[in-house]
Design goal:
- The protein is an all-alpha fold.
- The chain has two domains: 230 residues; 40 residues.
- 64% of the residues lie in helices and 0% in strands.
- It is built from ten helices and no strands.
- Helix 1 runs antiparallel to helix 2, helix 2 packs parallel to helix 8 and helix 6 packs antiparallel against helix 7.
- The longest helix has 35 residues.
- The termini are far apart.
- The mean pLDDT is 84.
Amino acid sequence: MKLRSYLPSFENVGLALLAAVLLILAFPDFELWFLAWFALVPLLWAIERQSHCVYACALLGWIFGTAFFFGTCWWLTYAPIHYAAMPWPLAYFLIFTACLGAGIFPAIFAAILAILLRRFGSWAFLAAPFVWVFSEFLRYWMIGNNWNAIGYSQAFTFSDSSPIILIGNLTCSLVRVGGLLSAGFLIVLCNSSIALSSTGRSRQSYILSGSLFFVFLLWMGLYLVLYPPMLDSRARGIAATVAIQPNVPMSGMDSVKSDQYRNNQVKVAEAEIKSLNVS
């Protein structure tokens, strides 16, 4: 009975897993980048509902982190399965084990946020962006790996199918100033503002959360006016480069197919160079 008090409820586990799925969809191969702007809301709800037990919240963060990292890094099993002849159950087990380790850092985020929620109530959601950035930096500092930081989800914002190009301008301009973690800060700020407005008990929570995010966007809009976004680099006289990353299958290749892929990469590079009007 005592052990049960340290475990999160099934409903909150479901919310944490829902947040993980939404964030997975914001990354390749799905690239639904806009989901990242509210993907963490279910996790924040779960932490707020479970904040009476810090251990349970840490477990929620661990479940979320493990599911997210496994859902975005499962493809790493390809090399050991196909080149090291490793049995696929063992390959997936090893990746899952690594994801369990990476999941510790979202667990730290959840535990710290739970402590703040117990002390300050729903207003603690305003601290979520700071705690999240701390957890991502801690992961990079301790293990030297910051794969799939939430800011990376916006890498495909400028795709042709992007419906809201302004968000891409805001995010990429922010990265120019504060790096990847600043983009993550903005994304989590949006998530925490939604969580605060939906769980707050007073009208002030709606006003404050909306005002904070609006002021931040207003500041970024002013920055865009003063400093044009990355896409305008040619007009600003900044040197442009072309980098082509080959998308080559990891199996079924022969010399003929290899030549075809290489020739295609050359054509793509030449076409991009011509589009830049480089003499």
